[in-house]
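Worked example 2:
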Amino acid sequence: MVKPLHRKLFRDIGRHKAQFIAVTITMFLGVTIFGATYDSFQNLQASYGSTATEYHFANLTVSGGDVDTLVAEAAGTDAVESVEVRTVADIPFRVGDVKLLGRIVGVPATGQPEVNQLKVIEGNYLDPETPDGVLVEQHMADHFDLAIGDSFEVLAGTDWMQVTVQGVASSPEYIWPARDRQDILTSPDNFGVIFPSAELAATLTTDPDNEAVFYYVDGEPDEETTALLSGRARDLGATNVYTRAEQPSNAGLSEDLKGFEEMAVFFPIMFLLAASMAAYVMISRMVHSQRPHIGVLVANGFTRGQVLRHYLGYGLVPGLVGSIPGAIAGILLARVITRLYTQMLSVPVTLVQFYPTTLFGAIAFGLVASLLAALAPALVASRVQPAEAMRGETPSGGGRQSIFERLIPPLRRIPVSWRMALRGVGRNPRRTAYTIVGVVLSLMLVLVSWGMIDTIDHLMTRQFVEIQREDATVYFTQPVSRADVAALEDIAGVAKAEPALTLPVSLSSTTDHYETALLVLADGTEMHRFASTNGDWIELPDRGLVVGKAIESLLDVEIGDDLEVKAPGGITLREPIAAFVDEPLGTMAYVSRDRAETLAGTELPATSALVAYTDDADSAQLRNALTDRPEIAAFEDAKALYSVMQDYMVLFYVFVGVMLAFGAAMAFALIFNAMSVNIAERNREVATLLAVGTDRRRISRYITAENLLVVLMGIPLGLVAGYYASQAAMKSYTSDLMAFDLYVRPTTFLWAAVAMVAVALVSQWPGLRAVRRLSIPEIVKERSA
C-alpha cells in the first residue's frame, strides 16, 4: 500500500520539478548561510579564546595612578596569577617621510612578559645586547614594509632617536589595531605599535611604569576580583580601568563576533522562512488541485495517516536534498571565512574545528522548516472527505465586480481583458495572498542586506565628512599655545587651524563609571559639528559637557545631571551635561576651551591642531610642508582615514554582498515558484478561453497583467516590512563603540521595487511557454480522468 504512494510522490515531483528545484535551492541557501556563519562564529570565538589563554591576555588593565601600590596589594590575591607593571605611551614615530602618533609598550628585554605575551612572527625577541632594538606590531610592519634590520625614529623628549627592527610580532592587545575605545578605527599611517625594552621605554616618556596588567588564574573572568581591584585602582587615582571585554581591540573584535552570531540566526531564519513559505504555497496548491485524487485514495482503502505521511514527503524530499549538501557547503565555507578573517587581522592562533552540532543542527534546521511547511497542507489532505472531494468543485454565485471597480467606478468601463485581470485578483484570494506573501518575503531578504550596505556607507560619510570637518590633524612634539597654533595659518594652503586638547578621562555618575576621551575644542569650532539626538546641529555650549548619546543609558543620566570628570594628574571636577550628541563612531565627551580654562583656572595648552585646507590646496604638498616643521610630531589625514575606514569594511561588504546575492537568488526562486504554480493551476480556465477562440498571446497578456498587479500590491507591504526588518538587524549591532542607525537611500527602495517587477516578469516566462504549448484535448482528458 505504500509503494504506489512513493511512485506518486516522485512522479509529482517530476511533473513539478521546476517548483521543487526552486524550493530545494531556497532550503540549500538558508542552511548554507546558517552553517557558514555559525561555524565561523564558533571558530573565531575559539581562536580568540585560545589566543587569550596561550598569550596570557590581561583580564584587567589599569592606567595611571599609584600602580605600584595596587600591584603590591594584588600580589596577595589568590585569584591573580600574574601581574606586570609596564610603560605605555603614545609618542611620535617617523618612518621615512611619514610622521605618525604611535604607541610604545615596554616589555622585558630578557624574556616574554608574564601578561600580554607576544608571538614573534619574523626575526627574534628582544636582546639585552641590542638596546635600540624593538619589536614592531605586525600591522605596522606590513603597512610600512619594515623588515628585520630596518630603522626608523621615535621622539624621545625633544630629540628623535633611531631604533632598529629586531622582530615582527603579533599581540592579543592589537589583533584589531585600535588606539582606544573611542578611536577604534585607525589608519596605519596614523597609528602603529612597537615593543621596546622596559628600559628603553622608560627613557622615551616622562611617565614610566604607568600601567598595570593583571592575569587571573587560568585566564578565567572573576567579577569579584575585578570589582575589588577596579575600585581600589580608582581610589589610587587611576584614569583608565578596563576589563578584557572592554579592552579596545577585544571590544572591536567582540562587535564583529556579535555580528557573526546575529547573522548566524537572523539571515538563516529569514531565508528558511522564505523557503518554508515557498514549500507551503507549492504543497497547498498541490493538495487543492489533487482533492479528487485524494478522495479516490481514501475511498479505496488508504488510511488518513498514509495520506498525511505522503504529503509530508513533499516537504521532506526538498528538505533533505537541500539541507544535507547545504550543511556541508556551509561548514566548508566557514573554514574559508575563518582563515581569511584571522589572516587579515593577524590573529596569533587560528582554530578551524569540526562542530558536529553545526552539521546536524543545520540539517535539522532545514528539515524542521520544510516539514512545518508541509504539515498544514498534509493535515488538510488527510481530512478530505472522499465523496465531497470526488464530486469536484462547483463554483457558486455569479460574477461580480472587483474591489478595484467598486472603489474606482471608471474602471468598470475599461476593456474586458483588463477587467479580467482585475477580477482575477479577487476571484482567488488564496492565490493572491500567497503571491503577495512571496513578494513581501523577497523584498525583506533583499532590503536587509542592501540596507546594511547603505547604512554603513552613510554612517562613514556622516562621521568623516559631515561631523569631522577638518582636513587633517597635526600633533605637536610638546604642548603649545594658541598663538603657536594660529601660526600654522601662515603656511600656504592652510585656511584655518584650531587648537585641540585630548585627555583620557573617567566619567562617573552616582551609579557607574565610563572611560572615554575628553576633547577640548575651540569655542564655536568650525572643525567639528555636533548633531543632537533630535537631528538638529547644535553649537558647543558655553557651559557644560556635550557627550555621546550612549552615556545616557550607560551612566543612567539625563541633561542637567552632573558628571564627575577625573583626568590625569589627579584632577577631578564636576560639570553638568548640556547635550547628548548622535555620532556613529565612539562615545566621546566635549567641552569648550573657554569653559575648560575657567574650570582649570589657567590657560590650557594644545596638544594638537585641527587644520582645514584652502580649496586650491595640494594635500600631498601640504602634508610635506606641515610634517617638515620641527614642532609637528605627527600628521593625520582625515580624508585618508575615511578611505581606510572603507578598506576596513571590505570584509563586511563582501559578506553582506554575498547575503544580498543569496537573497536575490532566493527572491527569484520564491517568486518563480509562486508564478509557476499560479499559471500551472489555471489549465482549466486557459483551456476554456482557448476553446472559445481567445488568442494565446492575449491569454498570456491577461495572466501577466494579473500577476504584475498582484506583485504591485505586494511591493508596498514588502518595502515596509523590509525596512523594519532592516532596522531590527542594525539595532542588534549598536553599542557605545558604533551606533548603527538604519539609513536606506530612497533609490534603494525604488531599485528593489523595480527588481521585484523584473523578477516577476522573468520568473513567469517558463509558465507562459507552457500555456502556449497547452493542448485542449489533454486538459479535457486530465479533468475527466
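The first helix runs from residue 3 to 15. The chain has four domains: 1-57+244-392, 88-208, 413-466+646-785, 467-645.
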